[in-house]
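Hey, quick one: can you model this chain's 3D structure?
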Amino acid sequence: MDHLLDDELVLDTHEETFDSDYSPQSLIGRDIILHLLLTSENYEDLDNPESIQTYCVSRFEPWKQLVIEKYPENTDFTEQLIILGCHNIMNSLIDCIRNSLRQHLVQRYPLR
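Sure thing. Here's the predicted structure for all 112 residues.
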């Protein structure tokens, strides 16, 4: 979670590409977290599995269309790959939100 929220990495994309933790999943993870933070009204709304999965799948739509245009015989496989990938990202983000982010927020904003 700290890596996903790292201000320097978000602001300096050139540095990010050389980061040892760089991966396409971390980029989509950041995108999903940003979307959740901007659209959620309550902390409890952040870890909604359905919302995370739906948004993640929508982010892969352009890639899916490119693959299907080039390899129409792989349509089912491409859709399954996206669903499985988004499911893994969703589980990872929910774990981060429920554990790392909660700890991060408690340290930064102690309960009164």
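One thing worth noting: The chain is about 70% helix and 0% strand.
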